[in-house]
Specification:
The structure holds 2 protein chains of 2 kinds. By secondary structure, chain A is α+β, with helices and mostly antiparallel strands. Helix content of chain A is 33%, strand content 33%. Chain A is built from 6 helices and 7 strands; from the N terminus they run E-H-H-H-E-E-E-H-E-H-E-E-H. In chain A, strand 4, helix 4 and strand 5 (128-134) form a beta-alpha-beta unit. By secondary structure, chain B is of the alpha+beta class. Chain B starts with 10 loop residues before the first strand and ends with a helix. Classes of the chains: A alpha+beta, B alpha+beta.
Chain lengths: 184, 186
């Protein structure tokens, strides 16, 4: 049995220290270009204390968030999580953000996403994993396709910022597809 | 300008009234066919007591990003069903809606169609939303026809997103833009 759930080739997943994690999250959320890609909510600098409170809440069974550390540098570079877990249907969503700009576009995020998928399929026994991504976020879409996600549809004009309407793309991967592509 | 948002021909939109409605809403939750057509959430019978409690909780949310209407028959004021707008994203002008006509004997009479047209007016002309999103399941062919008939487009097919009666079914997401609705109703 392969029990290496939290170690990839470039990154590892961990939850180590709410205080230092909160400091990074509070710094990243001030990067509004980054933050706007991540969420539909209005961006807001909620601050380190708020993040710490969130991180110190007891874990719940509907969401599993991890800090992403670059292995070689031993540095916190982003986060990844499985959320909206519907246990009875085996359906869930994945979300990911690489907060440290110098670690984007180099495979760290893809490696973290692969670990999250493995966690969803092999530990949570999910049947599918879904995500939503801005249609303009080509780099993210490429990474998702590399991991085996396929397009399931488009929510027209669901994002409105800087007075520009953007589509939001839905993607999903089934357990069977993941097993074919990634089993080891 | 048409001024009446809550009065239709055969129906009206009203607030939940614990004394009048809890009984009917409790009865509907005991109909598993209805519950499965409505939602991927596990069907679960609720006593009138639980319905009332749930509404007390909901009232705290009401008006911020949640708008709930009981659909009533004008002829005798009975509760026919419900509709609501939720997860409103004000900054993007998007919201999700649900609707149910509780008793099988009240279905197929046009109550839902009238309620949806009233909900469109509320969403697009009172809340000034840009678009409306609706969800249903692969096995609910009635809802699919209903949504298409009223101008929704199928936007997302969430493959095998739910499991019922030993097999997987797709989750279907539909969308309509305020402009599309306005053009169709001009």
């Amino acid at each position: 049995m392969d029990n290496q759930l939290f170690n990839g080739t470039l990154v590892r997943l961990a939850i180590e220290n709410p205080e230092t994690d909160a400091a990074s999250l509070a710094r990243w959320e001030r990067d509004t270009e980054f933050e706007r890609v991540l969420s539909h909510k209005p961006v807001f600098p909620s601050g380190q204390k708020k993040w710490r409170e969130r991180l110190e809440e007891a874990p719940d069974e509907r969401q599993f968030w991890f800090s992403v550390f670059a292995l070689a540098e031993d540095k916190l570079i982003g986060f990844v999580g499985i959320f909206m877990v519907r246990q009875q249907h085996g359906d869930c969503m994945v979300g990911i953000g690489m907060g440290e700009p110098e670690f984007r576009g180099k495979g760290y995020g893809t490696d973290a996403l692969r670990l999250a998928l493995r966690f969803a399929f092999r530990e949570l026994n999910m049947h599918r994993v879904a995500l939503m991504v801005l249609a303009t976020n080509a780099r993210a879409i490429r990474s998702y396709e590399k991991c085996g996600f396929v397009r399931e549809g488009v929510t027209r004009g669901a994002d409105y910022r800087d007075r520009i309407r953007r589509d939001v793309i839905s993607m999903g991967i089934l357990r069977s597809e993941w097993e074919r592509a990634n089993s080891r | 300008m048409i001024l009446q948002l809550f009065e239709g021909e055969k129906i009206r939109f009203a607030a939940f009234d614990a004394d009048k409605d809890a009984e009917a809403l409790s009865k509907w939750t005991h109909d598993p066919e209805y519950m499965r057509l409505l939602s991927p959430d596990p069907a679960r019978p609720l006593a009138p007591f639980h319905i009332k409690k749930r509404f007390e909780e909901m009232e705290k949310e009401a008006g911020r990003d949640f708008y709930y209407f009981v659909i009533r028959a004008r002829e005798d004021d009975r509760a026919l069903g419900f509709t609501h707008l939720r997860w409103i994203e004000w900054n993007h002008g998007n919201a999700h809606f649900d609707m149910g006509i509780g008793s099988a004997s009240d279905r197929g009479k046009g109550y839902g169609s009238e309620a949806l047209q009233m909900l469109f007016r509320y969403a697009f002309e009172e809340l000034n939303l840009y678009r409306l999103t609706g969800h249903t399941m692969e096995y609910n062919t009635g809802a699919q026809k209903f949504l298409l008939k009223h101008g929704f487009q199928l936007e997302v097919r969430r493959r095998e997103a739910l499991q019922r009666e030993g097999r997987y079914w797709d989750g279907l997401t539909y969308g309509i833009l305020a402009d599309e609705w306005a053009n169709a109703n001009r």
